[in-house]
Every structure is written in C-alpha cells, then in structure tokens.
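#struct-pred
JK: can someone run the complex with zinc ion? inputs below
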Amino acid sequence: MRALSNALTTGRVHHAFLFAGTRGVGKTTVARILARCLNCEQGVTAEPCGSCAACKGIEEGRFVDLIEVDAASRTGIDDIRELLDNVQYTPASGRFKIYLIDEIHMLSKAAFNALLKTLEEPPPHVKFLFATTDPERLPVTVLSRCLQFNLKRLPFTAIVERMAEICTAEGISADAASLGLLARAGGGSMRDSLSLLDQALAFGNGQLRDSEVAEMLGTMDRGRVIGLLELVAQGDVRAVIDALRALDEYVPDYQVLLGDIAAYLQRVALIQLAGEAALDEPDHAAALSALASSLDPETTQLYYEIAVQGRRDIDLAPDPQLGFEMVMLRMLAFRPLDAAAQPPAGATPVARQARQPGATPAAPPAAAPGESAQWSAVIGELGVDGAARQLAMHCALIGQSAGEMRLGIKPADSHLLTEQQKTRLVAALRRRFGDGIRISIEITEAQADITPAGVDAQRENEAMMRARAAIESDPNVRELASVFGAQVLPDSVRPGRAGAVKRDS
Ligand SMILES: [Zn+2]
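RT: done, structure tokens with the ligand placed:
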C-alpha cells in the first residue's frame, strides 16, 4: 500500500493490480477508487478530487475509459481477444484506459495466455485492475506481473453500522435486531447484506420489522445450509433429497452454496480440534458445535474435500443443480459404514449413553457447569428444526434425575412454548432418551442466561466487541486510510453511498 501511495505521488505506477478477497468485501469498489486516482483531472494522486468529470464519471459508471468486464460470463479466448484488440488505441478522454476485470480467475487458459502477451508489453496508456475471490487459480505468470492487495472480510459490527447509516439517511427506522439478522444472513459480505436489506425493505413495504425480516430470511437463511449438512451427517438419504428439492425452489447459486458448505465444514473441523472457543465468528455456533459432535474428524475432512472438489468441478456437471446433488450424494456414499451403528468419536457422553442398548430411559445429561453446552449437544442430536428447535434453544436444563428432565424457559420467550412445538420437542426427547422419561417445561426467570440461545447472544456480543477493536487496529484499514485519505476510506471498504442502497459488483 505504501508502495502504491508513493507510486501515485511520483506518477510511476504499476500497470497491473490484483485485488483479492471474499465476495462483497469491496474489491471492485477499491478498484474504482484506484481508477479515480489514476484518471482524476487534478493529476495522478492518492487523493482524487471526487468532483472533476473523470472522478464523477467513474463514480457514476459512465466513464468511457474504464472498461469493466465480468470474466465469469466472458471466459473465452474470443472475448479476451476482442477486448485486447482495443488496447492499442489511446484513451478517449482519460489519462489511462483502464480495464477492470472481475472474477479474473474464471478466464480460460487460452484467454490467460492472450492476456499475458499484453501484460508483458503493455502500452503506456493502459492499466489493468483485476479482482478475484480465488487468486490461487491465476497462472503464476500473470500473478507475477501484478501488484497484489488482499482485502479482508468486514466485521459484523461494521456491516450493521453501515446499514444503520443508510437507514438513517433514508429516514427508515431500523431496529438493531433486524439489522443483526440481515448482517448475519449476509455472512460477512457487505454486498450480500445490503442486497438483503433491499429485499427486506421491499418485503416490509419500506418498513423494517424484525418479525418480518426473520420471516423473509427463513426462506434463505444460511441455517438451511447447516441443516442440510446435519441431514447428511445423520445419513438420512430421503430427508437429504427432500431438502435438496426444497432448496432448488430458491434458485440458489450452487457454486456459492458449495463454498458456504466448505466454509462451514472448516469451522466444524476447527471446533473438533480446538473447541468452540476457537471460532472467530459467532453465527450458527451452536448448530456447528452440534454438527462437530455428530461427525468424526476424519469424515469432516473428507466432506470438506468433497465440497471443495465439487465446487471446482461444478462447471463440468450437466447443470449446477445436478452437480450440487451429486456432491451431496457423494458425501452420503462416503459416510463411514459404522457411523450409524457406533457413536462418533466426537460424541458427547450424553449421546453415548443414550445409544446404549437397554438404557430406556437413559439418564439425561447431568446438570453441571458445562450443562448449556451439553443441552446444546442434545439439541443437535434431536434432529428437530424450525419452531421446535427455537423452543429448545431458548430452554435451559434446570433439573434432572434418572427418568426425569426439567426444562425452563424465560417468560419473555414463553411465546415459543406453544402446545404444538412442546409436543414436537417432547416427542423428540422421548425418541432420544426413551418413552418412559418424564419431561416438564416451566416458565421461569431462573438460569435464563444459560440457554443455548443465551450463550449464542453472549458470544455474539463478545465477538462484536472484538470486531470493533479489530477494525480500529486493522493494519489494512489503516493502510487504506493513509493511501486514499480518511474521507475516501468509508467508500473503499463500505460499498454504497449514504442515501442510496447501492452495491458494487
Ligand atoms: Zn478528480
């Protein structure tokens, strides 16, 4: 970054830049800022004026000398040749003709070779800005000719704050709960989060209400992805197939979905080896912990390999949905033969006990300091979903003995305790611990904070504090500030402008 700043000041700038980072992190936004730095009418500068025709044109996406290409849709040699044929012509109005190629790793080998020829001897009036989520898929010959920047994912708090700013500017009253739900569902991607905010506003007729946001997200929550993994872990083929059919109705991007699955499996492996405390992100921690105890570490590694391999090969499948289904079926096929018969290596003592033959009713988990985690693990074993799972998550185990289990739920959460969900939860507990077990659920204020949901909330709170500290001390953030100037920084890491729900792509 320092090198870039100096280069911009002295006018000796690289001719190719690579911005790498996960989806929605602001790669193309930063690239467009660099385009302004290079083409600002005030001169090549680390601090573009923002008001000249070039700066404004780039910002509004109508600057003729900034040519943006999505390599994901134009991967072939002919596309690149057509593009490079024009490289020799001088810029129409700017200082430099800038090619911004997004998802550059998607180019074919032949296309990369054609591009390399130009990169080796670029005309002086041309700059290349590349963006990629996957820099390792670039040929080293291309990589070696680029100045590379790695952009980090945004912390949860930064996304929530940005959405709050936008809502304030738009005169929309937004509660923290709604914004938290949206940011979490956006999975650390500003772009995805803002897109969800857009959808939530459309869904709520311009209003943001957490009940409606939750309802909307229920159809696209990433919890669905974890749910699918849970079914695979249980080896329930029929349920996996049903879930796949249901999933397809939301027309997901299957390649992205496989990336999500691989990312979740990585976190499951992390929990298995280092414990839940090693997670640096709070979302879905309880569900992932449950998954960590129902899979053994070898199977987790195997599933990860299958997901990554599947993601790489999905373009070769007859269509993405079939490719995705095949990956899930492969996971089921590679399930260790004895996984259903024996407790997995990571299983909690509760699970072992429950599976012992003749243990009917088995003793429920002992109420001990780790009881919240144990209850959490029990929930993972129950295989309940939806409202029944929510009910379980908001319950605490407040007492037990052989043949009896007492659960407590806070008065504030007691709306979850409907007759229907109670029946489902009790039925699931009886399936797990035996028909003879007596189960009661009391509405009580006592021990309310040790519910799995309470633990999640507390962990999230701590993570938000850490995230706040991290963004303030992040060297990338500081570097960006020093290169682009403090006023420019908010744009570079937070796509969109106050007053408009706008996204980069
Ligand atoms: Zn300018």
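RT: quick notes.
Residues 40-42, 48-49, 52, 54-55 surround zinc ion (CB under 6 Å).
The chain has four domains: 2-151, 156-217, 223-333, 362-453.
JK: thanks, will look after standup
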